[in-house]
Amino acid sequence: MITLGSITGMEPPTGPYTFRRGNGETLDNSSFISESQRNLILQHHNSTVFLKSYLSRYITSNTQAACRGLELQTALMRIASGMSRTIDCRQPRKLNDAQRAEVNQHLEVRLLHRRQKTLFKFIKDQHGSIASIRGDRITTIAIRSDGEKALLKEVVAKYKKEQPVLDIQRQLKSLPVVEEETVQVEEYAFMERNRVIQALFTFATSSLEEKCRRRVEAVNALTALCRLQEARFGLTVAI
Q1: If 0-12 CB within 10 Å is exposed, 13-18 middle and 19+ buried, where does residue 10 land?
Q2: Rounded to a whole number, what is the largest CA-CA distance in the chain?
């Protein structure tokens, strides 16, 4: 689920409980559902669970308007404080070839790679088998992976700092803002996962029929994805 959120361009980590918390927030903000009904729907013993684990730590209400007796602009505040505000498909999702080559030049990675090659030659000369050096190879891969994650984190942080400034400069010069990149489905996901992305991470419409249709499609998409993943482990799925 975190990968799906990253592909969509969301900044906060996205997990199954993201949707459950969103549902809890909707119930809590409804004037037609009482606190006890909310707890019953969410299967909470009391309100402590909601206050501790569900209630957003961001203030999503217009407190200044409330103090001044003005309109609260609930819809605007909901858009400004929601996760969808962070969506940016241009945000880097992986390292390019040059950045991956930079990770391979890290001293620790180079030393482990050199040790791997030495052990490979020694064991092959002595025993004709390289199974014994598998541990060193795994260690090398793990350290290289950690280096790639750290570098990607730096690249994303630099993007978040510099890209808004570049967009504002382009707007001041009456230049079009660079369009969001289209996600290459083949690069990140197989068909079932892409179906889940389209079902869960597209904006809702105001049509009640469309909302119902999308909910059914989301359930069917997740069912298809679970069936595929369980089939990989040879499990029999009766759905």
Answers
A1: buried
A2: 84
CA distance 150 to 99: 11
* Three-state secondary-structure class, residue 230: helix
DSSP string, 156-192: HHHHHHHHHHHHHHHHHTTPPPPPPPPP-HHHH--HH
Structure confidence by residue, pLDDT tens digits, 45-94: 899 988 888 887 777 788 888 898 888 888 888 777 777 777 777 778 77
Tokens of 74: 């609930």
| Residue 4 near residue 183 (C-beta atoms within 8 A) | no
Task: Scan for tokens 């369009």, then name that residue.
Answer: 179
Please give the C-alpha separations between residue 194 and each of 105, 199, 201, 202, in angstroms, as whole numbers.
35, 9, 10, 12
- Residue 66's identity, in one-letter code, is A
pLDDT digits (tens, 9 = 90+) for 7-53: 677 777 777 778 888 888 888 888 889 999 999 999 998 999 888 88
pTM of the model: 0.48
Q: How far apart are CA 184 and CA 98, in angstroms?
A: 20
Structure tokens at 204: 């809702």
Are 123 and 130 a contacting pair, CB within 8 Å? Answer: yes
